[in-house]
Amino acid sequence: MAELSRMDLTMSTRKKVSETTSNLRVAVRVRPMNGTERSEKCSTIVKVDKGKSSIDLKSKPFGPFFRVYDTDTTQADIYADLVSSQIKKVIAGFNCTVFAYGQTGTGKTFTMEGGRTDAKSSQDDPSTGIIPRAVEDIFEQLETSGCEEYSLRVSYVELYNEELFDLLASSESDDRERLRIFDDPHKKGVIVSGVEEVPVRNRSDVFKLLQLGAEKRRTAATLMNMHSSRSHSLFMVNVVVRENTNTGEELVKQGKLNLVDLAGSENIGRSGAQGNRAKEAGSINQSLLTLGRVIRSLTTNAQHVPYRESKLTRLLQDSLGGSTITSLIATLSPSSSNFEESQSTLEYAMRAANIKNKPVCNTKVSKKTILKEFADEIEKLRRDLRAAREKNGVFISQESHEEYQRNAEKVNELEEQLLCEVDRLRKLMEDMTYMDEQYQQLYERKGALEKRLEERIRECAVKSKELADTNDVLNKHIEAIGLMHTASLKSFKQLVQAQEAADEMKTDLGAFWRKVDEMAVADDLHKEMIETLTRKMNSFIQSTSEQVEALTSDGKDATAKIVENVDPHVSTIEAISQSINKSVGEMRSTTSSAFRKGTEIENEAVEKINEIAQENLEKWNAVLKSSSEYYKAHSARSEEFSKQLTDKLDEIKKQISDFAEDFRPLLAEIRNTTSVNLEKRTEQDTAITNDVKTTCLNVTEGVRALLLQLEQLSVRIEDNHEEQLIIDQNNQESVLSTINTAENVVQSVEDMIEEQCDTKEIDEKAQSDLQGIDLDYETTIQEAKEKSLEGAEEMKKVTRGLLDKTEANRKEATCAVDSILTRISVDSETCQTTGEEVKKSCDESSENISSMLQKFGESSKKATEVALEAISKIEIKFVDPSGNPFSFFLYAILSISVNVPPRIVPTYPDSTELKSPPEPEELLGSEEDDDKLVEGEELAKKKRRVTSFVRRDSLLDTTNIFLSPSTIQKRREATIDEEEDFEN
Ligand SMILES: Nc1ncnc2c1ncn2[C@@H]1O[C@H](COP(=O)(O)OP(=O)(O)OP(=O)(O)O)[C@@H](O)[C@H]1O
Question: What PROSITE patterns does UniProt report for this protein, alphabetically (predicted)?
């Protein structure tokens, strides 16, 4: 009996994950014009409208479709768009189908399998089709998802002339064994008996199988296609993934990917099919026609869907209106020569787009549940078988021969189903063993990792201690920074005090300059006194001239008297002038000494300020220097520390990578050993399988022989019913004994299963323990990692915070020092400028005073000169006492001779000839000139005051020319009092 297997891995534990329906995803692909079409000068009648996702065929729109692809679309684009997402679903436990439909020669095989090259991967050849890309992708996605326990099996079948053949069967002969299809009694779907489900462990395994299958697939050259596929092909990938949940439960996910390349629909006349080819084409068209009817029924909600009318529709039953996620790629020729076929394909595709499927995820079930399910299933089948056998016994004796045959068929079918289940179980056990091996490797790896973990934990403890030490050091640094901060604050306070002292000095300087002003006022008073004297001189001169006039009238005596009086006055004037000059000199020296003193004080103040500033600057520089040194040292230490941390981390990383490096060859070795073991095991399994096969064959042979006997029996029954009955019974007994043997085989298999179950329980426990340890280990590693990261992060944060704080403090202190220094320098500059200005104004006022004094001196001199001139203009004449005007000589002679004393008669010049003394304004210069010469309101004010005073004084003294010193003194005092009153 041929080995039986089951195609559909879905089990009774299937569970719907969603009630949502999804439409079939229909895409249309247009291939480029081929050589024949071009040579026949056919026009393009197909236009792809990507915007609307529709196809215009001779301007008639079809669509919208899920996607439309023009002639430029690459294989990679189509794969990424349509299939890539399905792979994820398959790994998650869904069944997915992708099939290509279209007229012959439109690119179905090209789309599904790719260009005819020997490329080993999609990277080598961009024309690689969906099937190889999908296989590559499944491996890639399983590896990248970190899934470590999985098993892949592939089957490849072709449906040729309504017969199903295994493209991966080992038989080399052309006369390949047909596969049987029968309905799965429990679910929607079919069971294909005896199909090879080849376990694949890597990509290259799959490529080899693909090549093997493709070679076996029936193709032929037709007028439409040089390599026309004459059969429908179905490539299936079963993915079983085992997972361990957090609760320690073992879960198994089973997903399946069906990749279907249908044979092309063809116009037999146009394709030139004859004989066998015509028969093939007829069969192909027939199955496609049924597929069309199924699609129509599904989209019109018909009561009956004719799945059973062709094997193709039976195989695709779950993909059309079932629980599979299905995509259809309709392929088109762009040529006008294929208008009718293209139209039919598009109509077909439009209809298919309305089919609704209800995708269902094959629930993750525990291994234990699967084994139990199998055991139940086998038990059920056994019961059915027994019942059927019993029925047979009854029917042989009582009912007709046809009834008996029907039952015999039923027994056969049940036996097949039973064997199928056993085979399925065997495959599952193989998968489980494979995954157990994967698990064993993981377990060993875990042991090694545990050791590593212990080491790491020890290292972590050392690191934690180091971290704590570093923390202490850092705390000390923080304390030191705090002390520095306090010192900085203290220095800042000192600086503020220095600033206050500087302010006080400024106030003192202000007082000093006020004193200087007061001295200047005193100077003014001196000057005013001098002016008063000058005025008095003027008035004296005036009064002198008036007296001279009066004396003229008084006569010669008076003249003589005047002459006598004038002399001492002249000397007095000279003395006064000298005293004025002297007092001017004195004043000059006093003023200059006062200025010198002021300058000295100012210099002293500046020096002192500079000294304080210098002192503070030095202090601050020292503070800054020590701070920056400290910060430098601190940052160097921090850097060193962080470097140490980084080094340690690097070291740990390196150790981990070293460990990984060490571990890799070990892993490779384990893998090698495992694969060797696996091969051995496979060999053993093959031997066992062969044994089982032989046994099964024997059993089948036995059953066949029995059937033969039964047939003979039934012939004989007609002749001698009674007699044969005894023989029948004997035969039946022998059948029963054979069946019992079969049952024993089944029983032994069951025992094996139970045994497996027992060991599995231990396995499970160990696994759950390991799972726990795994989890603990991962959590501990994670925690240790997180802790060390947190610690490092916190350290970094603290260090960063401290550095920021210190930086901020440093900046603040520097800013404060800068601002204070700026203030001090500004203040000292202001002091200097103010001092310089004051000095300048003092210099100017002293210059002005001296020039004024000079002017007054000059004016006094002038006044004296005027007075002297006035005096000199007085002519003294000797006059004859008798009144005769003789000449002096004559008079002298006469007087001598007559003894008459002569008389002196003074002649005063005309009053107009006498020059009046200059006005005070004239002497001091005009106010406009003052404005030009003297900048500053103060000096102008002083001058105005002097002028008014001089004018007033001169008015007061116009009548008195010569005053006694006591009068002068009195006048002076009175004037000062008046002046004060005036000022008030
Ligand atoms: N998109 C495409 N780009 C380039 N060449 C293509 C494309 N589609 C198909 N071809 C070429 O057209 C020819 C026919 O393609 P293919 O054999 O895949 O058609 P088919 O639909 O599978 O035909 P059949 O139903 O007869 O098997 C091949 O030579 C193939 O390389």
Answer: KINESIN_MOTOR_1, KINESIN_MOTOR_2
Angle between helices 84-92 and 130-144 (to 10 degrees): 50
* Ligand 1 atom at shortest distance from the alpha carbon of 229: 27
- In angstroms, how far is CA 454 from the centroid of its own chain? 36
Specify whether 433 is located in the same domain as 357: no
Q: How far is CA 722 from CA 390, 469, 733, in A?
A: 20, 105, 17
Q: Is the CB of 331 under 6 A from ligand 1?
A: yes
Which atom of ligand 1 approaches the CA of 228 most closely? 26
Q: What is the pLDDT of residues 687-732, one digit of tens each?
A: 766 776 676 577 667 656 766 766 665 566 556 555 655 655 665 5
Pairwise CA distance, residues 139 & 151, whole Å: 10
Residues 284 and 407 in one domain: no
- Which atom of ligand 1 is nearest to 265's Cα? 25
Burial class (CB in 10 A: 0-12, 13-18, 19+), 320: buried
Q: Is residue 110 in contact with ligand 1, taking CB distance under 6 Å?
A: yes
* Other CB atoms within 10 A of residue 671 CB: 14
* Structural domain count, the chain: 2
Distances, alpha carbon 899 to alpha carbons 892, 893, 904, in Å: 9, 9, 16
Model pTM score: 0.46
Beta bridge pairs of residue 261:
100, 233
Is any atom of ligand 1 closer than 6 Å to the C-beta of 116? no
| Residue 105, annotated as binding a ligand | yes
Token pair listed for 927: 């106010």
263 in contact with ligand 1, CB cutoff 6 A: yes
Percent of the chain's residues with pLDDT above 70: 55
CA 115 – CA 128 distance, rounded (Å): 6
Q: Are 360 and 416 in the same domain?
A: no
Q: State how far the Cα of 593 lies from the Cα of 585, in Å rounded to an integer.
A: 12
* 415 CA distance to ligand 1 middle (Å): 43
Q: Give the pLDDT confidence of 841-891 residue by residue, as tens digits.
A: 657 766 765 676 676 567 656 656 765 666 566 565 555 544 554 444 554
Secondary structure element (H or E) that encloses residue 61, with its range: strand 60-62
**Contact by Cβ (8 Å): 881, 903:** yes
Residue 106 annotated as part of some ligand binding site: yes
Predicted local confidence at residue 549, as pLDDT: 72
Asked whether 227 lines ligand 1 (CB < 6 A), one says yes
List pLDDT tens digits, range 295-317.
Answer: 888 878 778 888 888 888 888 88
361 with 449, same domain: the answer is no
Q: Is 367 helix (H, G, I), strand (E, B) or coil?
A: helix
Cα 367 to ligand 1 centroid, rounded to whole Å: 44
SS3 543: helix
> Which ligand 1 atom minimizes the distance to the CA of 100?
21
pLDDT band for position 16 (cuts 50, 70, 90): very low
Q: Is the distance from the beta carbon of residue 32 to the nearest atom of ligand 1 less than 6 Å?
A: yes
Count of C-beta atoms within a 10 Å radius of residue 720: 10
Would the annotation count 108 as a binding residue?
Answer: yes
Residue whose Cα lies nearest atom 9 of ligand 1: it is 107
Q: For ligand 1, is residue 228 a contact (CB within 6 Å)?
A: yes
Q: How far apart are CA 627 and CA 621, in angstroms?
A: 9
Q: Residue 814 corresponds to which tokens in the numbers above?
A: 């520097």
CATH number at residue 229: 3.40.850.10
Residue nearest ligand 1's atom 2 by CA: 31
